[in-house]
Structure formats: C-alpha cells, structure tokens
Amino acid sequence: MTDNTRTSSDIFNNEDSNTTANPHIDQIMSARLNRRGLLLGGMGAAATSLFGAGALTGCATASTGTGAAAAMSAPLNTLGFTAVAKSLADKVVVPAGYNVQIIYALGDPLKAGTAAFKNDGNDTDWDNRSGDHHDGMEYFGLDANGRPSANGTTRALLAINHEATTDEKLTSFFIHANGGTATLPRPASEVDKELAIHGLSVVEVAAQAGQWNYKPASNYNRRVTAMTEVLISGPAKGSEHLVTKFSPDATRARGTLNNCGTGKTPWGTFVSGEENWFGYFSRDAKDDDRRGKKDKAVAGLVRYGRPAGTASRHGWESAGAEDKYVRWNNSALGANAKADYRNEMNTFGYVVEMDAYDGSQPVRKRTGLGRFAHESVSFAKAVAGQPIVAYMGDDARNEYMYKFVSAAKWDAADANANNRIAVGDKYLDKGTLFVASFKDDGTGTWIELSMNNPIVAANPDFEFKSDADVAIFTRLAADAVSATKMDRPEWGGINPRTGEFYMTLTNNSNRTVDGDASLDSANPRFYSDMKGSKENKGNVHGHIIRVAQGNPADTAFKWDIYLFASEADADKSKVNLSNLTDENDMSSPDGLVFSDVTGLCWIQTDDNAYTDKTNCMMLAAIPGKVGDGGKKTLSYKRADGSEKRVDTYMGKAQSPDILKRFLVGPVECEITGLCETPDGKAMFINIQHPGEGSKMADIGNPAKYTSQWPANAGYGAGNRPRSATIVITKKDGGVIGS
Ligand code: FEO
Ligand code: CA
Ligand code: CA
Ligand code: CA
Fold first, then answer.
1. Is the pLDDT of residue 62 over 60?
2. What is the CA(542)–ligand 2 centre distance, in A?
3. Which of 198, 340, 472, 585 could serve as 226's disulfide partner, Cβ 3.0–4.6 Å?
4. Would you call 271 helix, strand, or coil by DSSP?
5. How far is CA 726 from the centre of its chain?
6. Three-state SS at 369
7. Residue 36: its pLDDT value, please?
C-alpha cells in the first residue's frame, strides 16, 4: 500500500525507522568515507573503465532447460494499442482487442480433496487453498508431458507471493464468518487460518484453445505458509542472533511472511522478498530492561521497527500457549535464547529461494542478500565467467538500494542443472552486499558492506563482528557508510535492450526540503497534491530511477530519473516534469517488470493519492537509456526563507507513443506481479486487495463492500472481494502490447 493511509495494512507498509542523520548527496563524501583507500581505489578504477563502455547485454540464447532467459524474440518499438482511460469502475479494464480471464483467487482449492471455496467465512482446510493478497509472481514452463521446460507456452507453474491480508483491528475479517475477533486474545481457530493465508503458492495452469485454467488437483500445487519449516542459508546460518527454541543451532526457521516482490534466478528458481515482517511481532514494554541496554539486539529491534512495547498486527501471540502462537512474542521471556523467541524476528527479512518444480526441497532463506524490507530481486544477465549480480530495494521511507555480487563466477551449464537449489547455494550463499550512494553529478557508488570494509555503527553498543552481523543487521551497516535515503524503493527490473537497472521509488510522505530526509538529486521533488479536500505533501506520486553500469559488478555507476510520476494537470516545471498526459498519468509506481519477449517495461501502481480520479493501473513503456534527457535544477524555499537548489538528471520527456496506460483494476486494488509465456502471448498479473477499504461492521451487508470483484465478473461463490490472478490474451492471438 501507499502512503496517505486508509487501512491498517497501510500502517505496516509505511514504516520509517531510519532516524540516522545520513548525509544526502550534497555532503555524501564524508571524511570517514574519504579515509577508505579501498573504496576510493574501487571508484577510481571503475571511473576509468565504466562510462560509455557499452559492454552491455545482447540477449541470452534460449534454452531448452529451465533457467536461461529467453531471447527477446519480438522486440516492440511501438505500442500497438489504444490507451485505456482512467477508471473508477469495479472491474478490470483493458484495451479493445484484449481478453481478461480470472483464473486463481483467494481460497481456491489446491488439492483434489479440498472443498470448493464458499467465500462466506466458513471455509476450512486453508493449508490447501490459495493464500491472500496475491503479489509478485513468476512463470515456470512445463512441456506437454508436465516436465520442466523453459519453452512451455501452454502449461506452466505460477509461483505466487501471498503478501498479507485485508484486515481491520487485528482481524482478517473477510475470511471469518462474522468478521472475526478484533480484540485480544485472538481465538486459535482464527489465527490458524490467518497463518495459512500468508506465504507462497505454486499452482499449475494450462491453456486449451486459448482458455486458461488452473489445475486444482495438480501434484505440483504447493503451499508454503507462515508455519512451513525452512532452512537458514548463507552467512547468518548458525548465528547467535538466530538461535530460537525451535532451532537452538540457528539452522532452521518457520515460515515466510509478507512476501512482496519476486525474481527468477538464471538457474530457474523462484525468489521472493520478505517485506513488512516486523509488524507481525510483539514486544512487551519491559523487554529492553530485561535484555539490558547494551544488548545489541535492542538496537537491531529498534532499527527494524520493533521498540519495546510494540503490539503486533494480528495478535497471533495471544492465541494460546502452543509454540506456534508464542513465537510471535519477540520478548526475552526465558532463561536464554534457546528457551524463548527473543530472536524469532531475526529469522525474517530475507530473500527466500524456492524451487517451484520441486516440492521436496525446503525453502531457503538466502541471508547473504541482507535483511531489510525486501521487495523484488532483479538479476543482471548471467555472463559466463562473471559473478551473478542481483539488485534489491528496502521498501520503507528513507531506506536504501542494495546490490549483491556473488563470489562464484557464472558457469552457463548451471542454467540447466537438475538440482537447482544446489546452484542457489553456490551463487547466493557467498558474495558481497553493496549499498547505493547517489551523487549530485549524476554518478554514484556501490559501497561494500562486509568485514573487508570495516563498519563502525553509529551506536557505540553495536559492534559488527562478522559477516553474519552484516547479513542480519544490514540497515545498521548501511547507515554507517553514508548510503542515500530513497523515496521507498519498490520493484526493480533490468532493461533487456540496454542492461540498465530500473527501480521504482513509490512515494515518500517523509521527504522534506530540509532536515534528515531532505531533498537530494536522486530524490528531488517536494510538492503538495490535493486529494479532494485533503492535502498531501512530500514526494506524493513517486518516481523511477535507473542505473547504468558497464559491468554490473562494478562499484561505479551513472544514473538518471527515467520517469516522474504525476497527475497530468500538475505544474510541468516542478511536478509533472516528465510531461505526462491523460493517456499515461499515474501515481505511486510499484511493480516494474521488463518483458524478455518484447522489451516493454510494464509499470504497475499501488496508489492511494490519485484514487479520487482512478483505480490503480498498469502501463506499458518503451524507455530509452540513462542520459537521454538532461539536467534540471529545482528551486525550493527553506524554512528560514533561503533558497535550496537541487540539481537532478531526468530522462527524455514522455509521450503516449512511448508510455501508455494498458489496464485499470477494480476498486481499491493494487496491480502487481507480472509474468508471461515465453512467446509473449499470455500475460499473468495479480489484482491485490480489491475492496480493502470495506468495513468489518458491514460484513453481513455485501452491498456496502467497496468492491465485489471478482464475483461481479462471474468468478466464484459469494460476494466478498478476493485477490486473484488474471491472464490477459490478445483476441487475434498476438503478442501482448503489439
Ligand atoms: Fe509490498 Fe513494497 O509493496
Ligand atoms: Ca506496495
Ligand atoms: Ca490529486
Ligand atoms: Ca510492492
């Protein structure tokens, strides 16, 4: 969800725990940084080799295995559809000539013996049903015989994140008959359902005569929930900070939570980012005193949004004495860490890897990619003999952008390995994490976060002793090296035409002209926007930044702002800098996926600022490249009346020829997740939380639900709104967007 809050889910998506006074780009080269010969050496070397070095990608050759990216087989240089208008209708709107089918929604059965979904709050067997709040999603092809095949276009597995649930005052009200119990203690019977609707699902889908359906009895169907046993992998495995009563040797954990964006590895596995997991834990008011003020875990808990005396989002810890409930209380209640769940929260906040094809393999928490509010993971094209590089963002206000560079060099044979999780072990468990620092001259640096580059935390009680500490307390490490505070990093994507990395910065209500989160070149807008009679300030609509590197593993980069999101009628000199029009104006870009088939950039919104005029949407774009626009200087007035000038670098102005609205969703949904068949002729996306502003008090009165989608489109029983996967096809059988 976006800022400008409406529901309780918003609260957990708008965290700002970054109270560090990290300098912004006008001050970025701190004295401390300058002392680091290592960093300066790295930058100097890169500066001589990088800029203008166009060693960027061609496209990988198509593979008959499961991993390698398909070649860009149908690159599009025009957008062959008519833009859809902004819409407040409770339905999915697409251009003329396109079909939409709803294929897989909250509660749909995943086992032959599971009853059809009644959608009245009395459904059972939730471990064998679709979870809630469909989010990121990836496509894993199958051949006609159901064997893994990257080229499969009519049969496949979809691996899907189930991020959260539509809630009000603790309860996930649409899955309980009368809306559930909104006070503590929560009944165990309700909590058991809520534990099961979070996590991941794998579901088989197939097309017959152009009609797609999911297969309710496929042996591939799988759920991973908040209770599923998973393995800790990478540098944090065995750390004292991950010791729990469940796993005294810190090698195992239970569940994955708040899974938001996704990625697909070059070896054909699914990765998923754990985003707002901290909200699920409680700490009692005395916990700091009990642990002792010098316990560095306390600094970690505060930096990750859990100071002592914090209540949990759903009150799961209140449901009884059983371990599965107690674990959500993160207080130090036992004699030591092996006797309680004081470290349970440290087992969340990672990228998890799952082999969608192999349900016998436990999910791995890939701790080497750091611990924060992970969104998506964008893998640069794998090149033989070069490291694997993955770009990531920390989605909270004023958090950072990160990059992981593997220690192992890519062996192309690994694209077709049978044991895909073992390949993940090889590339994701050993490597180096970097955090982005953007400079006001249009360049930037990836700063290494490791024990090779000694990190001195601002808090004197917090000493980094190992790479495990860096993996677990990543935000504190990044704070210590003058990383740039961003306007909420969401999804990233790699442009297959150029190799450039794009990242959405969805919005930031805490961006200010001056102070700790003051404007800088990479986050250069502060303005006012009216939603009805309500004024919102900050960077209300967000922007999309992009990064060019000669070699993805380099530490130096060039950047510009590809797109400033805006309402079309906003001031073109300060707000609507990208010249958006009615055909392509938008707010709060979140999902961003490049098509490997067409090269189009698909942008999805999760907005609550422009929703007086339109529901959330998806747009198609043909972007250029870093540097195709120019420098722009913005002028602001400080509180003391003096002028603050901010130089920024922007991409070329937009027009409907190269950026056009393709889809608008039903009421109060977010558009998210995108994957497609390898021929580009079927595109799957997710409609998350339609009707999320409905009131629990109206549970018996469907006419008062703010949305009745997808039931009002003929899908499924009941009237309660449901998150769902849809598939889009072109009536003439062509490539989507052509
Ligand atoms: Fe789950 Fe950052 O959106
Ligand atoms: Ca979001
Ligand atoms: Ca407005
Ligand atoms: Ca998101």
1. no
2. 12
3. 198
4. strand
5. 19
6. helix
7. 29
